[in-house]
């Protein structure tokens, strides 16, 4: 498929014009443009700057215009919009085109320091639900059928009575999307319903479910009639093996969480204690190794109390390493557990991260957890912010793309404040619940490495 055609003027020189220089008709929707990675013919060009029509006029030049300073998260007025925000973001992007700054044959994008979100692959089934040319149904009819299928599949196989009340957004992102057949893409905006709330109202009218607004502006499914004929007669499609993946170039790689080990570095004040075991200042040790070294040191120097072997006598080296100044002349013995804990507390923290198939990486300091926070924007809208994904081998752009689909909300990836090479993901609305499922269940990350999960909204019944 030929690359997206852009007038040659845009690629000449180092500056990029922001004023319109062509008139054309879009050949695909914004979502399809993003899905195709901005490859292919996106527009049918009717008139361009410096063409024959321009030459027959006054031959004026387009004005110089500064980029619009808009916040992409505020471009969508309605939560759940996945097309409005990207459409306006397109006006903000500076595109480097026609052979300049191309890597691996892909057009690179820059937008106020942001990275573009990787979308679905170029499978023809992404743009159309059914690539079969013999299917005469419209895209809307196909999407309506897929919506019904995922809805019934989720109720029959995934949702239990104990899950109720269930946020409608959670039902869509955590249950309906996971029931979508491989190779197909569930997009409510392309159905006749357009909105999830309208679709669920129809299902409520058919008495399959009951939906209530348990808190202001937040709807939840509070009851399901599992004996309804449409659920009991629904035939579950044959399952296909699926796995959560992160995109790496043109390949899909299964994500496996790294093996993380806390380490302890020998400080200058404790070198005498560790030098007998062959370690010097800066040596990184695991907790078990530290324990073995301390036990060996105590036994070798006859420091174990003969009458009570749970106590260790403190020689001058141990006193200097682990005692406070006011304890130097008052504390002469310590229990084993206290001795070991004091040693670890006075050593410098470090950690080792090992990704599958890679060499271990040792870094000083404590490992930063994935940080989830909620922020209130000037427009009085909440956004969910996620930081430190890279530490755990997660690509922020891939995570943002998954959340954009699951939450049906606009997402952006921006540089993290105070960091030179770290990115943060922002999602419109409180999406902590979706993040919790993605990180804990899909990516299998230990809970201790994630902070902020308690900020998830909790539905409560009306009294």
Automatic annotation (TrEMBL):
Region (Disordered): 104-134
Pfam family of the protein (one): WHD_eIF2D
PROSITE patterns with a match to the protein in the record: PUA, SUI1, SWIB_MDM2
Limits of the SUI1 domain: 370-443
Keyword Protein biosynthesis recorded: yes
Record key words, sorted: Initiation factor, Protein biosynthesis
One record GO biological process: formation of translation preinitiation complex
GO molecular function: translation initiation factor activity
Residues in DM2 domain copies: 262-346
The protein, known as: Eukaryotic translation initiation factor 2D
